[in-house]
Q: What sequence folds into this?
């Protein structure tokens, strides 16, 4: 197990990226700074550090050191991303050879802590082996160089393959502190005699950022997932044939109630969309499919995570397919319903005292979709009546 010893210069937050296309993942990066500072791991003297591995040395941008300053709570954090040529990483992993004259060689021994985000729900093989293992690079460095590891609050599992589960358990045993955001893996943690602490998701610590948008009163927010709408995401493909009809019928139900509906993307790249996993593309497809576009507002702008959290915070009711879009509603006290494709939804909702507000959308029939819509409308009606 890694042990925290003397103070060092650098602090590595694994997966740190404020510009991630997934605004939920970016929200974790925003929130991680406040979380780690509040828990007295991250100090203002620390410099945030990451490494980016590159293959093509002929692209000048690949070889550049990227410097950035991040202002949170009136403090400017210095963030540096150092380049590592893939051959250098191969030497490190294969032969434990460190080149002392490189950026990596000069900084690795000065990292005090590695704190792992893993995408919030990426410490699982639900999205496939590649995504699970690709998020372990910094964790592997921590173990290899005996750097203390903090496992930041997230959902653990599920694991389809036993070898992935064994690797996850090995990592958890190494960590000097384990935070989780729900109770879905507690049984396994207890079985392994691992100490843990349940706390809020990292996005809780990211504050909404108001911007120049006028929200209609009593608005309904619907987050449409490109992962489910396109229905070709590796590992989850062909499980959401009915999802487009579900969203279309859901919109029609709230139109009958005379509500203004906001289509809110939460994971998207405004300029270079991922065709199999882009919420804005899905929201546009939903909008274009509608015969009746009255009172439908498509949020078609390149917004950062705190700005989207602000929009969601202004809704009177929210329906989300992305977990972190739902977190934005939960943490700003907006009544909601989750369209779930993983057990993480139920665990997260119940963790916050919200019951019977999720329904699984994997492999559902059109009849089951209509039943889900009835459940959503009933939840909305009960919330509306309770506030009168």
A:
């Amino acid at each position: 197990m890694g042990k925290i010893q003397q103070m060092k210069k650098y602090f590595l937050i694994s997966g740190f990226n404020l510009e991630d296309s997934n605004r939920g993942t970016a929200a974790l990066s925003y929130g991680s700074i406040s979380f780690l500072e509040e828990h007295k791991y991250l100090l203002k003297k620390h410099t945030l550090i990451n490494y980016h591995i590159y293959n093509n040395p002929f692209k000048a941008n690949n070889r550049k050191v990227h410097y950035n300053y991040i202002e949170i709570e009136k403090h400017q954090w210095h963030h540096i991303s150092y380049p590592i040529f893939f051959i250098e990483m191969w030497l490190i992993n294969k032969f434990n050879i460190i080149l002392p004259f490189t950026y990596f060689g000069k900084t690795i021994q000065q990292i005090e802590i590695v704190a792992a985000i893993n995408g919030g729900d990426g410490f699982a093989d639900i999205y496939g082996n590649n995504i699970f293992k690709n998020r372990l690079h910094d964790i592997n460095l921590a173990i290899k160089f005996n750097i203390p590891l903090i496992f930041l609050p997230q959902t653990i599992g599920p694991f389809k393959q036993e070898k992935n589960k064994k690797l996850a358990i090995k990592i958890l045993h190494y960590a000097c502190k384990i935070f989780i955001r729900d109770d879905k893996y507690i049984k396994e943690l207890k079985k392994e005699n691992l100490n843990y602490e349940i706390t809020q998701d990292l996005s809780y610590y990211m504050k909404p950022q108001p911007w120049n948008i006028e929200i209609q009163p009593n608005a309904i927010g619907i987050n449409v997932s490109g992962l489910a709408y396109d229905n070709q995401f590796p590992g989850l493909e062909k499980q959401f044939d009915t999802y487009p009809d579900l969203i279309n019928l859901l919109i029609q139900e709230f139109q009958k109630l005379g509500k203004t509906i906001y289509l809110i993307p939460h994971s998207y790249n405004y300029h270079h969309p991922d065709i199999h996993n882009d919420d804005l593309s899905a929201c546009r497809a939903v909008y274009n499919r509608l015969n009746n576009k009255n009172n439908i507002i498509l949020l078609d702008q390149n917004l950062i995570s705190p700005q989207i959290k602000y929009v969601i915070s202004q809704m009177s009711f929210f329906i989300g397919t992305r977990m972190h879009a739902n977190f934005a509603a939960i943490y700003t006290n907006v009544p909601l319903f989750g369209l779930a494709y993983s057990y993480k939804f139920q665990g997260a909702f119940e963790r916050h005292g919200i019951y019977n507000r999720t329904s699984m959308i994997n492999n559902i029939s059109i009849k089951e979709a209509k039943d889900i819509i009835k459940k959503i409308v009933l939840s909305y009606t009960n919330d509306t009546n309770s506030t009168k």
